[in-house]
Amino acid sequence: QVQLVESGGGLVQPGGSLRLSCAASGFTFGTYPMKWYRQAPGKEREWVASIDSVGVSRTFANSVKGRFTISRDNSKKTVYLEMNSLSPEDTAVYYCTRSEIYWGKGTLVTVSS
Hints:
single chain; four-stranded antiparallel β-sheet
């Protein structure tokens, strides 16, 4: 049974940083690319970042490029999203996904002073 569990969200001030984690189980983690999405209040879910199965190829949405980094530790079956220079526009529930088929329940990030 595929499970994805996000953690690390919370309240952070503008300009601050957070590191999100997504712990995976129930499948051979190291053979799948992984993605992060987010959904802001009243908006559609949007893609944020992707990483290939071995952590070499990474791509980012223009809105987060240069501020967010995606990484993974296949030995820990975990994918990370490092978020820097956060702004209120980054406030959203952040989800990790495998193939846009399996989704975690998300972790809320609130950027506010």
